Amino acid sequence: MSLSYPRPHRPNPARRLAAAVTTALLAAGVLAGCSGDDGPERSVDAFLAGWRSGDLQAVGLIDPVGNKLPSAEVAREIKELSGELAATPPTLTRRGEPKITSDIATTTVQVEWNLPGQTRWAYDRELRLAQGDGDQWQVIWEPKVLHEQLTKGDRLALRRDAGARAGVLDNAGKPLVTPRPVVRVGVQPNGVADLKKLVKDLDAAFKAIRPALVPGVDLADLPARVAKAEPGAFVEVVSLREEAYLQIKPRIYDLPGTKFISDKIDLAPTREFARALLGTVDPAQADDLAAHPDRYVVGDLVGHGGLQGRYDERLRGGAGLTVVVERPAEDGKWEATGTELFRREPQPGQPLKTTLDVAVQNAADGALRAESRRSALVALRISDGAVLAAANGPGPTGENLAFTAQVPPGSTFKVVSALGLLDRGAVTVDGPVNCPKTFTVDGRSFKNSDNFQLGSVPFRTDFAKSCNTAFAALAPKLGGDGLAATGRALGLEGQWDLGTDAFTGKVSAGGSPAEQAAASFGQGTTLVSPLAMAGATAAVARGRFEQPKLLVDPAPAKPAPAGEQLKPESVAALRAMMREVVTTGTGSALKDVPGEVYGKTGTAEYDNNPAHTHAWFVGWRGDVAFAVFVEKGGASTASAVPIAERFLRALPTT
């Protein structure tokens, strides 16, 4: 269809001549659509460039009835119509040559928007031009040039729908985080009789919850929030797990002004449950929005720390995106018209399947619950290296001490030293090894805990009673790097790939005679994590090293290869000695624990003050190997061993 636009009638001989020539060329079938320097394509390209830049001064613009339009007005209207997409103008491409009918040219333009989430929205629009005086081609502007369903006053807007967040699964494939009952505790301002007293009473009640809420409930801003709220509003104070709420319900339910709403929130089985390993899922924080403005918007759920943070994109999935048309309502606010121009459906996240065992993790968390010092407990399945539990205490700290601590192992490292000595034939379990009160190497004096001495006793007794001086004396038999070599045979210092951060240890090697003596019982420069020691302990129980495994899906790309078989006679002897630690040695507090428990205690100095020590216990029962660590725990028999006992008694024996 041919359109004409009114213009003042001005006889133009040149125009009449051009028309005659055009008619002749059409009759001959040789007219090109828009060839030549004066064709409409130059105006089309200038308009497309000006659309993107916001400067249309190089383009002649008219409305559909032929009225001239100021370039600045059209540029402003394009920006307003683009709405929430204005900050990222589309890529505009002319498709082919314009077609000319009389004094109207028509061309197709591809409009391609780059939307958040690397989403492409492309469509074709028809652009028309009219040939004005002086043979100049003028762009006919109207809102539907931008999109066929836009009219004046409209704008484009984005609507975002978050995908369903996937869960972190346990070793049975069940979600660890599921909807669990909570009670939202709040205050209704017009029901409060004495706000100062209410705050005091609530604070005392929250502090009475056991295990304690860490961090505690901060009520400092509650008076100000109540003062600003509407009289009948619900001013939320805290959401409590149902079991925590029931502890203090008698104390807070009848307080004037308190209100309670039952709800369900996605939560782990308990507040402590593998918290540092799993991480948390929270509404997007200011830092998240600033760091990833193209990924998150206010209200999004974001993983922070642990597996939730590391695998946030996988778990979160892809947000759905819809481009809609909005126009002003009577009150001037933008409202959707119901017209959708583009939709990308949300994509659900992909779950993470872990090796965690709920019963074992609960036992580990429970064992640490009464510990006030920073502590950790790691449990592995001996048969395949699966991580069954990773507990950290106290409080919901984000640091996964169980995997990433870098601390001296103390006498638990006698497991490594003893294996190295047995492998080299330097000792036998029943051969006599002197255990004096002190032993000096290069002017450095070594002593035993509480300055005990055993005299000349079988090596197994030195091990069971944890004699430092005996091991210091035997250190030269390991050589400069013998301890490190044995440690590596048990997986220490290895390149492990668990799918999360883990410290695999650093074993002393090539040091002075005094350093070698200290390293023989886990002092000196040797550093480990609870996970590393649990892995080494499992290797002794199994007979060879197998890298601990945490993630099943997605499986880590480069797990460490399995180690070579350990010498059967050496590990058999070492196992017997670790059993003796429990039956007659430093771990004898565990001898009445059901089942056969094997282990080794450890007390590790961490600075120049011998009174400052970390506490350890490593061992196994059945198919579960474990390591307990208590930072600044003092004597292992007073802190680490009782934790091990609580763990083993709570651990399922089937």
From TrEMBL:
* Coiled coil spans: none
Where would I find the Penicillin-binding protein transpeptidase domain in this sequence?
Answer: 377-648
Highest taxon in the source lineage: Bacteria
What's this protein's name?
A: Beta-lactamase
Concerning PANTHER family, the annotation shows:
PENICILLIN-BINDING PROTEIN 4B, PEPTIDOGLYCAN D,D-TRANSPEPTIDASE
Q: Which family does it belong to?
A: Belongs to the transpeptidase family. Belongs to the class-D beta-lactamase family.
Boundaries of every Penicillin-binding protein dimerisation domain copy: 163-324
Ranges for domain NTF2-like N-terminal transpeptidase: 40-154
The residues the entry assigns to the signal sequence are 1-32
Give the reactions, separated by semicolons, that this protein catalyses: a beta-lactam + H2O = a substituted beta-amino acid
Q: Which UniProt keywords apply?
A: Antibiotic resistance, Hydrolase, Membrane, Signal
Could you tell me which species this protein originates from? Micromonospora tarensis
Major site of localization recorded for this protein: membrane
Cell compartments where the protein resides = Membrane
Q: What is its EC number?
A: 3.5.2.6
